[in-house]
Structures are given as C-alpha cells and as structure tokens.
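Why does residue order matter? Because the sequence determines the fold. Keep that principle in mind as you read this record.
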Amino acid sequence: MPATFKDYYAVLGVPRDASEADIKKAFRNLARKYHPDVAKDEPGAEDKFKEINEAQEVLGDPEKRKKYDLLGADWEHGSQRTEAQPGMEEDVHFGGTGFSDFFEQYFSGGSRYGFPGAAAGSAGGGGPQKRRGGDVEGDLLVSLEEAMQGTVRSITMQTVNRMTGQTQTNSFQVRIPPGAADGRRIRVPGQGEAGHGGAEAGDLYLRVRHAAHPDFATRGPDLLHDLDIAPWEAVLGADVVVPTLDGTVKLRIPPLAENGLVMRVRGRGLPKGKSGERGDFLVTLQVRLPETVTAEERVLWEQLRDGSTFNPRAAK
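Structure:
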C-alpha cells in the first residue's frame, strides 16, 4: 500500500518560504475554522482538522520541515522506515490513528515497525524454532478534549508479509484514559507481529501525540494558554473571563502586570491518572498594541505621553 504524498504547504495555504510565524498563524486560523467543537455540522471537518494538525506537526518543527523539504520531488525514493528494521517480516499500515501513511512512513516519532521478537528455542527434534512476534509502534493523534475526558478509538492495522505478499487486517478498540499525556505509550497486547512456531504475537505500542490546538498547549498534566491583554489592562489590572477545556475561569490580572507574566489556576489542567487530581492551568500574559489608532485615540496616547512620568530607559 504505497503512501500518498502530502503537500503540507498547500494544506496550510502558505508558500514554501513561509516564516515560522506565518505557518503558526495559518494553522491557528484553519484550526479555529475546522475544530470539531466549532464545525460539528460541516462535512469533512474532522478529517480536515486532522490534516491541518499533521501539516503543523511537520512544518512547525524545524527538523521535520527540513527533512520534508529535502524529500522534494524525489520523495518516493527517500529513506524508508522498513529499511531501518530489516528483522521485521511485515509492513504495517494503520487506520484510525489520525495520521496518514505518508506521515507515519517519514515523520512518526517512534520506530513505527517496532522490534524483532526473540527466539524462544526449538520445538524439539529439529522442529521449527518458536519465536515471539516483534513489537510494533505507531503514533496516535489525540485531541486535547479527548485527553481531558478519555475516549475509545477504533483502530485498524493492516500487515503485509514481505515474502508472500499476504495481507491481514485486524480491527480493535483502544482505550485512551483521561489525562493521557503527550508521549505516553499505550500497550495493546497481542496486536504486534505474528509469532512463529506457535509462539505468541508481539505487542502494539501507540504513542499519544496531542493534536495542536489553536488556543491551548500542554506540558505534562498542565494546560497552557496565552492571553492577549491591552496595555491599560496590564497597567490598571482587570478581571478577565478565560476559556479552558471544561468551562471558563475568571482571572484577576494584577495592576502593573508585566508582559510574559505567568498566572496559575490550580486544578484546571488535565487529570493525573486515577487519583482524581488535575494539573494546573498556566496563563501567560501577552500585552498587545493596537495595529492602528484613530485620530481621537492618538490624542489620548499623546496626553498620556505628555502627562506620564514613566521613563522605560531610566537607570534602575
């Protein structure tokens, strides 16, 4: 099953020389448009959101973007993950993980084709050697909403024997527990490479990858959010209602809050296992300036300038 090339620049609608800032802006605009909570009734929105995430995963990472650009028109002859695992006897293709075959072939975070199994001795009398099947790894795209609540994902795994060309397809469900952290590996017993000589099959390990969100990021169990505030809110302080993954919180910005100040709301992050505890909600203040000012606003800024004793360049 050959992978289909993905033009990630076209997916995000940016030129190949787009800056990191342009890529981030394009992703956020598209992610807000196609996020499942926003585009519930729009056909194909969920698939589009996954495609946007995949493009951001590659183009938003300098190393992955460099590798992607080097593939170019000769992408079909680039390095294959199967070449890095010569002991494996099967090619593996996933369905339901949220990532395309093209991404998994070139950019999967782990060893997609896993590890060859170990021999377990012969079956006596020179019979066929028993050998446990190799373990297989793959990436699993999980939205932050799924990571918060937990969910069950239907996965299909197609294995193609390199020697015989025989294809086998397995379908199964994987439980993603509440609070599944980015990078966590979920073990699915017996869904790896088939064993030999009556030995057991290997296991499947799915690595959780948090889908990029237009408003939030994660660090372990903590939920991160950048909050844009006006200059007068930074100086005077303000009460601001801030969205989280499960409702809103009221944040009291203190007077004279500096740009980049991180404010912590305890217990509003992702769940921490079965304890019932949760991580924190960390809000970073970003003081924004207006892009344009009216004539009346300019007069007010000039009055502030002329009446203020503040000098940012004065010796401290």
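Residues 74 and 129 are 41 Å apart (CA to CA).
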